[in-house]
Amino acid sequence: MNELTPHVVVALMALGIGVAQWSADRDSATSRALALAMEAIGISVLVNVVLPAWIDIPLWATGWLALPESLAIMATLEWLYRVRQTIPAAPGMNTRTGDRLLRLGQLSGLVYGLLAFVAPEARLREFMHASEAYGWGLLQLGGFWLFAVPVLFASLTGLAGILLLLNRRPDQGERIRVLGLAVAVPFFTAGFILPRDLAPIAMVIGEIVFLVGAMHYHVLQGQRGQFLSRFLSPQVARLVSERGLKRAMQENQLEITVVCCDLRGFSAYAQAVPSARVLQVLREYYDAVGQLVAEQEATIKDFAGDGVLILVGAPLPAADHAQRALELARRIRSVCGELTRRWSQPQARLGIGIGLASGPVTVGVIGAASRLEYTAVGSAVNLACRLCEQAEDGEILVAERTRELSGRAGFDEASPQLVKGFSGPVPRSALAA
């Protein structure tokens, strides 16, 4: 049993890492694939080293013992494939080559498993820990190359996939995890052929390297998720984490309500008080609005000086977007009204004005691979901004479509007003205090 202890430790460590990956990020398809790969590695060690020491396994049945190894190869490459799907590529960048390479690598892993049924003796005698009996002479064994070729090919396709993935500039957390796996894979691969007393050392080194990368990834993901949740709704932040930015924010046409708010008297205030105080005011303002936006499951599209542009009903559609937007506007008026009274100076007073408009818009991600921005394009965006410009301190101006969709009372009639970019006076209402 003492000879098996290192192998048992290696297997339990791999199984533990797999469970940790799954439990920490179970809703993420990428983390689930990676957890499956680590579980398969742990099971492979148990069934190929520990189990044969306890029971006598017929030669014809040993082909089944290769299935966890085949699964580990395929799941690892599946993880890389899924990570690639979550990272936007620059316009015109060829992404099919990397995807196809990874699929070929998975096919190679499947071939390895099938060969174990065709030539089980060659796998056991001339490949698994073959260096223990043959040393460098294993390179002259046909059985060694029969199984080494699909493993090496799968490893090379994985390395190529990693290099192509890094070329797309993933975020720091994903980059560290990918690089950790790239360093760990050679140690895992060496565990196939090294002598049984050295194989656990190589495997543990690989597990530690991978674990370091995974820890960095989850810490950075947690920090990013905490930051995103302050400005996006928690559902959107989770959607980005699970599906990636590209899939979560694909171009789409939705009817939404746009809320625009900005501070009244801010320019004069910025001239009258020290710049450090101005920055402190903006931080408190952004934090307050961000918290209110999250409560209504809305999304902040833009911070522009003292203005905030908010989308209610995107990226996640919401049938009651108009009602949510009106409630959000009420809360902003109440909370920010108290804040502006506290911030105001005798020589420079602050206030808050808000505009709302509803209508069909196109939402999606624009930008380059290095910097992306979630945006919305449509007349409702422009109208909300114009109404916000016209709103007095404490006033919430609401477009006619928003009032119709809300189906509620509590509006004060406001005279139609000419709005830049719109032909003719625009009907509008003021939300009662």
Walk me through the structure.
This protein is α+β, with helices and mostly antiparallel strands and 433 residues long. Strands 1, 2, 3, 4, 5, 6, 7 and 8 form an eight-stranded mixed β-sheet that branches. Helix content is 61%, strand content 16%. The mean pLDDT is 86. Helix 4 (96-118) packs antiparallel against helix 7 (142-166) and helix 12 packs antiparallel against helix 13. The longest helix is centred in the middle third of the chain and has 33 residues, at 199-231. It has 15 helices and eight strands. The chain starts with a helix and ends with a strand. It has helices spanning 5-24, 29-54, 67-86, 96-118, 120-126, 131-134, 142-166, 172-193, 199-231, 234-248, 266-272, 275-295, 321-343, 379-390, 400-406, and strands at residues 252-264, 299-304, 307-312, 351-368, 371-377, 396-399, 411-418, 425-431. A hairpin with a 2-residue loop joins strand 4 and strand 5 (371-377).
Mean pLDDT: 86
| Cα separation of the termini | 78 Å
The count of strands amounts to 8
Order of helices and strands: HHHHHHHHHHEHHEEHEEHEHEE
Number of helices: 15
Radius of gyration: 30 Å
Low-confidence spans: none
What about the largest sheet? 8 strands, mixed
Using the alpha-carbon principal axes, give the shape. elongated
Residue share in helices?
A: 55-70%
Helix and strand composition category: alpha+beta
Q: Tell me what portion of residues adopts beta-strand conformation.
A: 15-25%
How would you summarize what this structure contains?
Helix content is 61%, strand content 16%. It is of the alpha+beta class and 433 residues long.
